Amino acid sequence: MTKPKDIAVLVGSLRRDSINRKAARALAELASPELSLETVEIGELAHYNEDFDRDPTSTPASYTAFRSRLARANGFLFLTPEYNRSMPGVLKNAIDVGSRPYGQSIWQGKPAAIISLSLGALGGFGANHHLRQALVGLDVPTMQQPEAYIGGGDKLFDAEGRLVAASTRQFLQQYLERFAAWTERHAA
User: Fold this and answer.
1) Which tens digits make up the pLDDT trace of 11-44?
2) Helices 166-185 & 19-30, crossing angle to 10 degrees?
3) pLDDT tens digits for range 116-146
4) How many helices and strands in the chain, by DSSP H and E?
């Protein structure tokens, strides 16, 4: 058996009880043996400041650890809510930290997929597409199909945070199967 692909999961919500965090945990349980999903925390990253990279002695330890962890990943899975028709600032900051210093992006060429979950009916459509725009600029081959905009996220989990919506579970399982094939096809 081949070693599973190391997939760094980035959740765009810092809230402990966020539906996107719950979905990340559910996805880790649903993942096939070809994928190993691990959530990489982004909440402690300082706001990106190029001065930190101009003087390596001032680069925050959180930047170094984050970049090192993501450099080892074979691919990325983003889960994001939608804030004001876009991705949350904390997620954009993580993208910026990982793309710098210029010419040393940890994102480039590695496959990714995006799932957006929201309470509303549109399922985070705006956030999903803004994130896609950023990833295109970073040369991240992002899975196009199936698209994953999941609305009504507050109704998908029980009080303990377990995914209880059977149709959503089935969709996410199929999504992960396609993502496993996508990562295989775009493996560096």
Assistant:
1) 999 999 999 999 999 999 999 999 999 999 999 9
2) 70
3) 999 988 899 999 999 999 999 999 999 999 9
4) 6, 5
Whether the CB-CB separation of 4 and 74 falls below 8 Å is answered with no
Question: Which 8-state DSSP code applies to residue 65?
Answer: H
Round to whole Å and give the CA distance between 44 and 60: 10
115-138 residues labelled b (16+ CB within 10 A) or e (exposed): bbbbeeeebbbbbbbbbbebbeeb
26: nearest Cα among 161, 144, 166, 145: 161
Band of pLDDT at residue 1, cut at 50, 70 and 90? low
Question: What do you get for the CA distance between the two ends of the chain, in Å?
Answer: 19
Assess contact for 149 and 116: CB atoms under 8 A.
yes
- Report yes or no: 13 and 91 within 8 Å, Cβ to Cβ: no
Categorize the per-residue pLDDT at 188 as very low, low, confident or very high, splitting at 50, 70 and 90: low
Residue 102, exposed/middle/buried by CB under 10 A (0-12, 13-18, 19+)?
exposed
E strand or H helix that includes residue 24? helix 19-30
Please give the structure tokens belonging to residue 37.
């999903």
Task: Give the strand pairing for 75-80 and 5-11.
Answer: parallel
Is the domain spanning 5-185 CATH 3.40.50.360? The answer is yes
